[in-house]
């Protein structure tokens, strides 16, 4: 347990690093994995899947959300993204919006300095009330 008393950050980081091993990244060579703790306690993972048409590349967070929905739904509580060496990778802007949608503004995100709620990484996020 860590920060909020319910997130095992070392385990989440290890799961993200493991997920990166399954990435399909023949163009950039940057394997990325993401792992998240869900509201029901499950951990879901995803990896990036590149495409020759770069615009249709899927970030690790995108495939993680697909796994979230396919494995029972719910919401995200905490997310960590790592490369294949275990180094931190920050979510891009699109993925920050995706994390906000699936976890709400208080979804916790692993950052270089500290664990932060996604609302701090994406102030004034777009949503149904926007």
Structure description:
- There is one protein chain.
- This protein has 130 residues and is α+β, with helices and mostly antiparallel strands.
- It has a single domain (9-121), classed as Cytidine Deaminase, domain 2 (3-Layer(aba) Sandwich), CATH 3.40.140.
- It has four helices and five strands; from the N terminus they run αββαβαββα.
- It has helices at residues 9-20, 60-70, 93-103, 118-121, and strands at residues 32-38, 43-47, 76-83, 108-110, 115-117.
- Strands 2-1-3-4-5 form a five-stranded mixed beta sheet.
- The model has no long low-confidence stretch (mean pLDDT 95).
- It holds the Pfam family dCMP_cyt_deam_1.
- Residues 7-129 form the CMP/dCMP-type deaminase domain.
- GO terms for molecular function: cytidine deaminase activity; identical protein binding; zinc ion binding.
- This is Cytidine deaminase.
- InterPro entries: APOBEC/CMP_deaminase_Zn-bd (IPR016192), CMP_dCMP_dom (IPR002125), Cyt/Deoxycyt_deaminase (IPR050202), Cytidine_deaminase-like (IPR016193).
Radius of gyration: 14 Å
Percent of residues in β-strands: 15-25%
Helix content: 25-40%
CATH architectural type: 3-Layer(aba) Sandwich
Mean pLDDT: 95
Question: In total, how many beta strands?
Answer: 5
């Amino acid at each position: 347990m860590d920060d909020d008393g319910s997130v095992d950050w070392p385990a989440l980081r290890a799961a993200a690093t493991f997920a990166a091993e399954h990435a399909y990244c023949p163009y950039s060579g940057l394997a990325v994995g993401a792992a998240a703790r869900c509201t029901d306690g499950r951990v879901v993972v995803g990896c990036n899947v590149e495409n020759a048409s770069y615009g249709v590349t899927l970030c690790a967070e995108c495939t993680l959300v697909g796994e979230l929905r396919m494995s029972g739904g719910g919401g995200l509580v905490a997310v960590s993204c790592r490369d294949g060496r275990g180094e931190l990778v920050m979510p891009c802007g699109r993925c920050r919006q995706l994390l906000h949608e699936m976890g709400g503004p208080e979804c916790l995100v692993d950052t270089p300095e500290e664990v932060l709620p996604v609302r701090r990484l994406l102030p004034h996020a777009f949503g149904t009330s926007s």
